[in-house]
Every structure is written in C-alpha cells, then in structure tokens.
Write a structure and sequence with these properties.
This protein has 609 residues and is α+β, with helices and mostly antiparallel strands. It folds into 3 domains: 197 residues, 4-Layer Sandwich (Aldehyde Ferredoxin Oxidoreductase,  A, domain 1), CATH 3.60.9.10; 178 residues, Orthogonal Bundle (Aldehyde Ferredoxin Oxidoreductase Protein, subunit A, domain 2); 173 residues, Aldehyde Ferredoxin Oxidoreductase Protein, subunit A, domain 3. 43% of the residues lie in helices and 13% in strands. The protein has 26 helices and 17 strands. The strands form 5 sheets. A 6-stranded mixed beta sheet has the order 2-1-6-3-4-5. It has a 4-stranded mixed beta sheet with strand order 8-7-12-9. β14 and β15 form a beta hairpin. α2 packs parallel to α22, α17 packs across α19 and α19 crosses α24. It starts with 6 loop residues before the first strand and ends in a 7-residue tail after the last helix. 59% of the residues are buried.
C-alpha cells in the first residue's frame, strides 16, 4: 500500500503488552482513515455496554492517508473512544505534530487498551515503544507538562496529553497538543485519564510510502499557493473564526445568557474587531498556511489563543463583557484540559439555575467567581465542582426534570455557539450530529441564511447531508482540516487529486461520499447498540428552549422553532439517509454499505426495518 502504512500499534496498559497488527488495502479503501478507522475499531473491539471509563473502552489515535504530508492543513489526527459524557460514539479532530510523527514511526493508528494502575506515558520512537512512569508529571497543567516533555525528549516530538481535568475524569476533558490545540469534546481526555495515561510522545524517522512523491510535492505546493491566493485569504488572516461573532450578532444567532437570546448588548467589546486590535501573535497547526489561532494578552498578561467558539461560549453566553477576561478563562480551561464549549455550556446552565433558585453557583458576568469555579470543576473540588464536572446533561438530571427547559444539549453534548431560535437547518445539524450537538460536521447556518432562513423544506435536509459528507466524512477520514475549503474556498477537487498522488488510486468525490455515508451509518449503529435499542427520534431533537421560549430581544423578537415542522424536516433527513422513522439505518441501507454483520449485531437489541 501507498499512503497508508497498514499498521495499527496496540499498547495494553493493563498487561504492558505492545504489538502491531496489520490491515489490508480492502479495509483501507472501505474506511479510508481517521474517523472511519476509529468507529470501525470501536464497533469491533469495545463490548456493548462497556463502561466508558473502564478498562474495556479503547482510546484511538487515528491518522488518515493525507495526515502529516506536505499539503494544506494536513497536521491533523482523530482522537476517539466511547464517550463518558454521552454514552455513545465520541471523537474529536486535533492539530498536532503527533500526526506526522506517528506515521513516520510506521503506524496509522495507536490503539490504547486496558488501564494502568499508576500514571504513565507512552513513548514511541519508530519500532521502540515504551510505557514510562509519569508520577512526576501527574497533576501538571498542560503547558508545564509539555515543557518538561520537550526538555527530556526534544522539541520535535509530537505530544498528546491531558491536564488535571482529564486526570480527575471531568466528563468533558479533552486531549491537548501544541499550546492551544485540543480535541475530543465528548470527554476523550477523561478516557485517557481513566487509563492513567498522562501523555503520548512520538518521534518518527521513517519515510511515508507514497505512490508519486514528486507529483505530491508539486501538487501540494500548488495547493498551498492556491490557498494563499484566494480572495478571502487576507480577511481570514486578520481575525480567523472570530469574524463570525459580529455576523452572528447581526443575524440574531449569538448565544447569549445560556442561549436565551441571540444578540448581546456588549458584542462590540468581544468581537473580531476587538480581537484584531489586541492581537499579538498567530498560532496554528503543523503544515498550515492559514493559521487560525489568534492570540491576545489576557487579564493576567498571559498569551491566550481565541476562536469564535470559545469566546462565544465563555463570553456572551455567560454575559462576559471584557475580551481580556474571556481570554483568561479560555487559557485557564486550555491549560487544565477542558473543552471550552462544554465548559461554557455547564457554566451558563449553572448561572441560570442560580438565577432560578436551583443552585447557588454563579452570576452572569462574574469574572472572579467564574475563574474560581473553572478550577473547582477541573479538580472536582467541593460538592459544586464535583457536580458540574459531570456535564450539563447530568447536572440537569440531578436537579430535576424542570431544568431540562434550559439545559442546552443534544444526546448529552452541549450545543456549540449558534443560537437556533430561527435557524431550522442548523437546528437539524445539531440534532443529527454524529457526536451530539456539534457544529463542525455540518455548519449549514451560513448557507441557510443566504437562502430561505424560515424554510423547513427538504432542501435543508439535503444540505445538511451534503455538508456531513464533506466535513464529517471526507475531511475527518483523510484526515485534514476543513478550513482551506470552507473559509477561503479551496476547491474540493483538490482532495481526490492529492489522494491519487499519495495512494496511486483514482478516487472521485462520489467515492468520498460513499465512504462518508458508510461511516455515518456505522456511527449511528454504534449509538443504537450502546443504548441497548432504546432509541427514537427524540434523540435527534434540539434543546427544548428553541421550541418553547421565543426570543425577547433583537430584530427576531418572538421567534422560535416550530416543533411539527422540525419533525417533518427530520423525517426528510431520515428518508434521504435510508434510516427509518426512529432514526435507525434500515437493514437494506446497512447491507448496501457492506455492513451486514453490523445489521446482524444490531438485530440482537432492536428490530430493523
């Protein structure tokens, strides 16, 4: 094979066993890499009903055939496991040197099995794989940890690590890498912590086998040039994703006070223009020439890397009005190893629950208390910190059914930073997202507002699926960043072309879509199996607030989603996916994608149509 190494590295932390297993080209072409490899491994190897924080769960670090190669924004890796936050399939995409280094070491995927009794880290250098003691590293925040690892192993290693939040099994702890890089919103960092695995450190010196090295070198160079020459490139380089905040304010979609409103009276104090006036440095992932990590000096005079999601969720959603204060919260969360979206969600839920008399936790725009509460959550300090570390879904269940009205999640994962009181297409994207309420795989909101915002027509189901195929399918399996395409307009045709130079195989975009649909069917099957067949369409509903509580401010005052119309839109989506009215892939759909064994396994817990 070319492009793939055909090797999975398996490290069992219970037994200390290290072994390499092979896979063939048929497997590679069926699942491609990244997310495709991850869900297939988890389906095959994690027993139904396994405790996400138990030794039976497996932690997957998966590259794709384009990962770590000299082409636009390819320094990416998928981190995946059964989620401790949602109970279903969980993954995230992280920018890291470890992507390139793992492939140069000779492996496409690292599979961590079992669990250690004491803190350890895994050190990989080509064929040498060691499980090393990490007692001296346990407890360190991420920045200090990375510095100590670099002092010992050199600055060119790839590092994947957790902070104290992962060690303390915070249900939304993430995997961290390279300053502000993070991945695994559904608690993949907690899975790492449950295995007492503080870090993975990897260095590779081997060549990655390529079908046409010179062809890839030339095509990659041309692709980089194309990115840089796009009309939107200079605008993107000014603010990155923070461009979105001002737009969301204009279209009443900015998450404000726990998504109660879509506009924020202090938005200009925290938007991209404000960021641009304060920016001191731009950071990014390896192999990227359109870096998105725009950094400011925060309230503590530390460097804080900001993007739209973390500012939206820890800013307007908490009523925070000062960008340097928001920067302090973001940096603190990053260093402790927590997902900033889920953190903003649970803090906003706590603030509203305090307002309504269910908790005594936090008030809106309370910087000092918010900062302290973030630490309490990461270290599970006190009754409140321990409670909020369980995530919004579990806090709401503990406080009572009434609080579900303002608990902003889908399938247990907190909603990312788009208020959908009048964005039915984006609400659908959240509802049917493969990991819970996440925007990344189908960011349909911009297209939706350029067409017919209020429509619940089947064209929106078509668009959600189209974007899932591209963003959540092709890019997550290749594994590369979607930003060159979505943000500056690099043509999608580049990717089959680059893939051919790497693998020697003639790929089309239609081939990518078939793989994507197979992956989405497999992920949905994983959810249904893990919920023991107790599955219906309500699992794909967005938060009740968007149906039941109209906006009270801004140009869309009075707006809310229509539940009956949303149900019809959801049915359109199911029909086009080949899923039944419960949201479960039919037997014929699974068989169409070569997943008869999956259908047979599912039928042990539920009747397929």
């Amino acid at each position: 094979m070319k492009g793939w190494l055909g090797k999975f590295l398996r490290v069992n932390l219970s037994t200390g066993e290290v072994k390499v297993t092979d896979y063939d080209e048929e497997f590679a072409k069926k699942w491609l890499g990244g997310r495709g490899f991850a869900v297939k491994i988890l389906w095959d190897e994690v027993p139904k009903g396994a405790d996400p924080l138990g030794s039976e769960n497996k932690l997957i670090f998966a590259t794709g055939p384009l990962s770590g190669l000299p082409l636009p924004s390819s320094g990416k890796m998928v981190v995946a496991a059964k989620s401790p936050l949602t109970g279903g399939y969980g993954d995230g995409n992280i920018g890291t040197k470890a992507s390139e280094q793992l492939k140069k070491a000779g492996y496409d995927v690292l599979i961590v099995e079992g669990a250690s009794e004491k803190p350890v880290y895994i050190y990989i250098e080509d064929d040498k794989v060691e499980i090393k003691p990490a007692d001296h590293l346990w407890g360190l925040p991420v920045d200090d940890l990375e510095q100590k690892i670099i002092e010992k192993h050199g600055k060119n290693v790839g590092i994947l690590s957790i902070g104290p939040a992962g060690e303390n099994l915070v249900k939304f702890a993430v995997v961290r890498s390279m300053e502000g890089r993070a991945g695994g919103r559904p608690g993949i960092g907690a899975v790492m912590g449950s295995k007492k695995l503080k870090a993975v450190v990897v260095r590779g010196t081997k060549d990655i086998p390529l079908a046409n090295p010179e062809g890839l070198k030339a095509a990659g160079k041309d692709a980089y040039t194309s990115v840089r020459n796009k009309e939107l490139y200079p605008t993107w380089m000014r603010q990155g994703t923070m461009l979105i905040l001002e737009w969301c304010q204009e279209v009443s979609s900015l998450p404000t006070y726990n998504f109660r409103e879509g506009v924020f009276e202090y938005s200009k104090q925290v938007d991209g223009n404000k960021l641009e006036s304060m920016k001191v440095k731009t950071l990014g992932c390896p192999l990227c020439n359109m870096r998105c990590g725009h950094s400011i000096k925060d309230k503590n005079d530390d460097l804080s890397e900001l993007d739209y999601e973390n500012v939206g969720m820890l800013g307007p959603n908490l009523g925070m009005q000062d960008l340097s204060e928001i920067g302090t919260l973001v940096r603190l969360a990053d260093d402790l190893g927590m997902d900033t979206i889920c953190l903003g969600g649970v803090l906003a839920f706590a603030a509203e629950s305090t307002e309504k008399g269910y908790l005594n936790a936090l008030k809106w725009n309370d910087f000092e208390r918010t900062k302290e509460l973030i630490k309490e959550i990461a270290y599970r300090e006190g009754e409140l910190g321990n409670l909020l570390a369980e995530g919004t879904v579990n806090v709401s269940k503990k406080l009572g059914e009434e609080t579900r009205k303002w608990a902003m999640y889908v399938k247990g994962l907190d909603t990312s930073a788009y208020n959908c009181h009048l964005n039915p297409g984006m609400a659908l994207a959240f509802g049917v997202s493969e990991i819970g309420a996440h925007h990344k795989s189908s960011w349909v909101i911009y297209w939706e507002l350029q067409t017919n915002r209020e429509s619940y027509g089947e064209e929106k189901a078509d668009k959600v699926i189209e974007l899932q195929r591209i963003r959540g399918g092709m890019f997550e399996c290749l594994t590369t960043c979607r930003f060159p395409w979505i943000e500056v307009g690099l043509e999608l045709d580049w990717y089959p072309r680059l893939l051919k130079e790497v693998t020697g195989i003639d790929w089309t975009l239609d081939d990518m879509w078939e793989i994507a649909d197979r992956v989405y069917a497999m992920i949905r099957a994983f959810w249904v199996r893990e919920f023991d067949g107790k599955w219906d369409r309500t699992m794909d509903y967005p938060p009740p607030r968007w149906f039941e509580e109209p906006l009270t401010q801004g140009p869309l005052k009075g707006a809310h989603l229509d539940k009956d119309k949303y149900d019809q839109l959801l049915s359109y989506y199911y029909q086009k996916r080949g899923w039944d009215e419960r949201g479960i892939p039919t037997k014929s759909t699974l068989e169409q994608f070569g997943l008869k064994d999956v259908a047979d396994e599912l039928e042990k817990v539920i009747t397929l149509q």
